[in-house]
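User: Good morning. I'm curious how 2-acetamido-2-deoxy-beta-D-glucopyranose would be positioned relative to this chain. Could you predict the structure with it bound?
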Amino acid sequence: MAANLFLLAVLTITTFSLAIASDPSPLQDFCVGVKMSPVFVNGLVCEDPKLAKPEDFFFAGLNKPGNTSNPLGSMVTPVAAGQLPGLNTLGISLARIDFEPYGLNPPHTHPRATEILTVLEGSLYVGFVTSNPGNRLFAKVLRKGDVFVFPQGLVHFQLNSGEGDGWRSRR
Ligand SMILES: *[C@@H]1O[C@H](CO)[C@@H](O)[C@H](O)[C@H]1NC(C)=O
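Assistant: Good morning! Here's the predicted structure, ligand included:
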């Protein structure tokens, strides 16, 4: 979910300032994350590369639906450094989201990541809101195979509104 390009424009009466920053480029091939460490760092500390094994770069089970029996009627199944230690420092992750009819992934942001989403089954009403000034809503009903991007840092949501193909047949 992360394309780590961060763009900030600051405009005042007298100055125009543009800053571009990103996560630092890895200085090694990989940094398999160790969850329990006495050292506090910005991220997870690296396991000794000599100890790395194929399983550190592997996750199984994304074919399984998440349990949507909760008040929101949705469940996010993340595949991030916590689930797949080899993702640590690479600036990208993946998730599966399951929705009941009218299930909602409520408005939220990822301050340091752009998110791109595709619909594998059913339909989904998705959108994001631009920052001040303006607060424009960009929203669309997606169907199977459609792709939508939520730009970095912008508030976004997903709702199974049942407006598309496949929704009624799944009830
Ligand atoms: C799904 O979550 C609900 C509520 O927490 C729970 O009662 C139910 O047993 C869970 N179902 C499965 C299949 O895990």
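The domain at 33-170 is CATH 2.60.120.10 (Jelly Rolls). The longest strand covers residues 123-129.
Let me know if you'd like a different ligand tried.
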